[in-house]
Design brief:
Length: about 425
């Protein structure tokens, strides 16, 4: 009888010890049914004050969360695949990851970053991939624009996305094709009115002031993410500080003579030695962008993600987590960057070597960091003005959109220092 009692007690102890107490959200290709919403679950858990572990290079960059009924329920509601594992199983995974022979790393995510999206308040004739995927993944964000930026609202946020935007004051260089379109006329009128309201004589001056505020946000420790034309137009605006590069149809007077010689590449975040496009009829800012000279067929348009040492280079490893290293290309006003225009201090994390294109790049500025991602919409190859927005329910496992969400979660672990 005594032996039987001891046996039952031991059985209970063993059963209790084996009790599932962690939730693994796998991010490999074959297991996860909704990669994009998985990021939203992880953000939600951080926002609820749970700690999360990002298992770099383990099954596509999986997430490990505490086992809580509300987390399970949230996964079920959002259609996110998860596995309930025991403490011993979790420890075995972490031990395996910690082995020097494995190119994997465990990164602790501590706090949900506060997210701002720089976007105008009026309806735009195009959609923004970041806004679409944040909404789809149910990650909260605050839209802000020039008034908020100039009023130092960026101090409230950790992460800033620059919507499809032109910081040079040339209205996206849409003049050639759309100068008579009602939306273009209305946007130009609204931009001029806002510049006047904020005390500027020109839209280009007002946009430069905004760009400088954003630069200071990054230098002070913020994280900035930009896509499409917000990448090169931001750098160009900073490099042209004090120089009029706008023709009369944009700002009412002629540009500075020989303005190209006055460009200061030292003020740019990522690019060097670029030549600006002077013709106002050409839908292009400079020769940073590869769009007009590309000879790539859509079916062959891919770029490759770089592989980094997760233990020694956790930052680019986080930003490149995916279930595939080969990502489908997509176009935009700024599709990709010529590799020889990228500063040597900037990491090229995604590229097409055959065409000499850098697609996905990352760098530091002061205490902060920035990532530039060429193209407009990862699941709409050639998104045009007026096209319907992408329905992400049709692309829940998009590798291209995963790169955006890597950047969204990254600030939760940005205290982890780069070792090389």
């Amino acid at each position: 009888m005594l032996f039987k009692r001891i046996y039952l007690v031991l059985l209970l102890v063993i059963s209790f010890g084996a009790k599932a107490s962690m939730i693994l959200i796998p991010m490999d290709e074959s297991t996860q049914q909704n990669h994009l919403k998985a990021y939203g679950i992880t953000y939600w858990a951080l926002d609820k004050s749970y700690k999360a572990n990002w298992l770099l290079n383990y099954r596509g960059g999986s997430f490990l969360l505490p086992d809580a009924e509300e987390i399970r329920r949230e996964c079920q509601i959002r259609g996110v695949s998860y596995e309930v594992i025991s403490d011993s199983e979790a420890n075995s995974i972490l031990d395996d990851i910690s082995s020097p022979s494995q190119n994997m790393e465990n990164v602790v995510l501590e706090k949900a970053p506060k997210i701002a999206v720089y976007t105008p308040k009026g309806k735009q004739p195009w959609d923004d991939a970041v806004t679409l995927v944040l909404t789809y993944a149910e990650i909260p964000f605050t839209p802000i624009y020039d008034e908020e930026v100039l009023g130092d609202a960026l101090l409230l946020y950790d992460w800033l996305h620059l919507h499809h935007e032109d910081f040079t004051g040339q209205y996206g260089k849409f003049f050639g094709m759309y100068r008579n379109a009602p939306w273009y006329i209305e946007q130009k009128k609204d931009a001029e009115a806002l510049a006047t309201k904020l005390g500027f004589e020109k839209v280009s001056d007002e946009k430069l002031a905004v760009a400088i505020k954003i630069r200071n946000f990054v230098v002070g420790g913020g994280f900035m993410f930009a896509m499409c034309s917000a990448t090169d137009s931001f750098d160009i605006a900073l490099s042209a500080e004090g120089v009029d590069i706008c023709e009369a149809m944009f700002d009412g007077d002629a540009s500075d003579p020989n303005y190209q010689s006055k460009i200061d590449y030292n003020n740019s975040f990522a690019f060097k030695d670029y030549i600006l496009e002077r013709n106002p009829m050409v839908y292009e800012f400079s020769d940073i962008d590869t769009t007009n000279k590309r000879a790539v067929l859509p079916d062959n348009d891919y770029f490759t993600l770089m592989e980094y040492s997760a233990k020694w280079d956790p930052i680019p490893s986080m930003l490149c987590q995916n279930h595939t290293m080969l990502v489908k290309g997509f176009m935009g006003q700024t599709t990709a960057f010529y590799s020889d225009k990228v500063k040597s201090s900037v990491l090229v994390m995604g590229e097409n070597k055959q065409t000499g294109e850098a697609r996905y790049i990352h760098g530091t500025k002061g205490k902060g960091m920035f990532t530039y991602y060429g193209g407009h919409d990862p699941e709409d190859y050639q998104h045009r003005v007026g096209d319907a927005p992408t329905v992400l329910d049709l692309h829940p496992n998009s590798p291209g959109y995963r790169l955006i969400l890597n950047n969204v979660l990254f600030p939760a672990a940005r205290k982890k220092k780069l070792k090389t």
